[in-house]
Each structure stands twice: as C-alpha cells, then as structure tokens.
Amino acid sequence: MVKIVTDSTAYLEEDFTRENDIKVVPLKVSFGEKHFIEGVDITTTEFYELLAKSETLPKTSQPSVQDFIDTYKPILEKDNHIISVHISGGLSGTINVANLAKKTLNTEEICIVDSLSTGIIIQFLIEKALELIKHKEDFKHICSSVNAQVKKMLSRFILDDLDYMVKGGRLNKTEALIGSILHVKPIVSFTNGKSKVEGITRIWKEAKTRLLAYAGKINKDIGIEKIGVHCGANIEEGKDFKRMIEGILEIPVVMRQVGSVLGTYGGPKWLGLGMQTK
After folding, report:
1. Alpha-carbon distance 19 to 145, whole Å?
2. 268 with 232: CB under 8 angstroms?
3. 122-169 pLDDT tens trace
4. Hey, is 173 helix, strand or coil?
5. What CATH number has the domain spanning 152-277?
6. pTM of the predicted model, to two decimals?
C-alpha cells in the first residue's frame, strides 16, 4: 500500500484526512514564551485573535526530525510506501527535515515531494497521488507523477499589509524596501518555490480585480483544472471572492481559511489563489 503524509500548512479538512488515512505532521508557532502546535492546541480563530493583540510578529518553526520519524516509522513497519508532500523548501525548512528523517531511517520507501508552494496546492498534489493509488499504480510511478504535477501548479495572492512578510523574512530586501516606502498592496506569486512580487497597487479593490483578471487569463491561455481560494481572518471576503471566481470561470472553487503558519506571514487580511493547470 501507498500512504500519504503531509504537513499542517496544507490545511486539509478533517473529513478528507480521515477518509484517506492521511497523516499530518504539524508545524509550530510561538507568541513570545507561548508555544503552540498548529491545528493541535491552537485553532485558526484563536490564532487570529492572538495575532490582533500581539505587538510583535509570532515565530514559526518546522517539525523536528523525530516528529517525522514518529510518523513515518509505524507506516513503514506495515510494509507501506509513503508519498510525503510538503510546503516549499523556499518558505520553510520542513522539506529538509523530512529528507533527514528519511535518511535516518535508511529507506527508499519514502518519496518526498516539494510542492514549491503551500496550502491548497498541497491538497491538489495529494489528490493526484490518491487518484493513482486508487488505480493501483506502483510506488515509483506515483512518486514521479506527483513530482511532475508540481510543474502544473500556480499560486498568486494579494496582501493588505506587506509588513508581515517583510518582518518574517519572506521577501527580498528590495521588495521589502519598496513595500515599506510606498505602503502598497502587492500581488505576489510563488516562483520556483519562493515569494516574488509580481505587481503593486495602492488600492485593495484594484488588487482583487487584478487577481481575478490573472485567473481569467490563465484559464484562457492554459486552462484550469482545479482552483482554490485562500484567505486569512477575512473569511467572509474569502467566500465572496470564491463566488466571484466561480462566476468568471464557471468551475467549482475550493476555499480554505489558512491558520497559524501562513497567517503569520500573510497577516489577518489577504486573499490567494492556488491553481492546477491543464
């Protein structure tokens, strides 16, 4: 059998993880001396409440090697293979820790996939793996196919406040300087697994319009098979944005409110798109 492992930045729904027997290795977030395990001892609502009150940016950290070993080992002991799909190595050290755990276990029965993104993109890659598992494809084929699928994924998002990504070190110095001077609403992509500013505007409404236009262009030029909307604490705006995308593309849209780790860098108000192209 082939089993799926991922991390908490996928923000999978509980029913989905339970029905497909997916193991989730959580990342961590700290507010000063208060330490939390994402999705375990802090809810999304609690996180955004703390973020609103906090005078300093919380800190995030990846799982430990032992966290991964403790997840992988029981699966391997049942003669299973593992497809392990994770947040981009350009955003977090999680993928490096997963690889170190694989090396420590001295096994080739684990395929570690760098999503080069996060959030709903990870879910789309997992869905690809599950489809292949259902069709009883062999482990090596599933591994290569899911890694190839990464190239079909696109992410773009808009931020109301650039300071969270700047302070979190997720933008380069030039982009950080532009943002801090101009107080803009940036349009950001994940390019080669790292955050890159693709455009700027001073007006939030205009940023949303440009994000909608981008989705429409991708659908026209390449075609979109799957698409999802991300949001922060602005969940009602996220729902409205989901309906707008569905109206433009005329395809179903998944929506996901992200939690502690992505919320630390996106801030309380942001919107994002994750797309699987044809």
Report:
1. 22
2. yes
3. 999 999 999 999 999 999 999 999 999 999 999 999 988 776 666 655
4. helix
5. 3.30.1180.10
6. 0.93
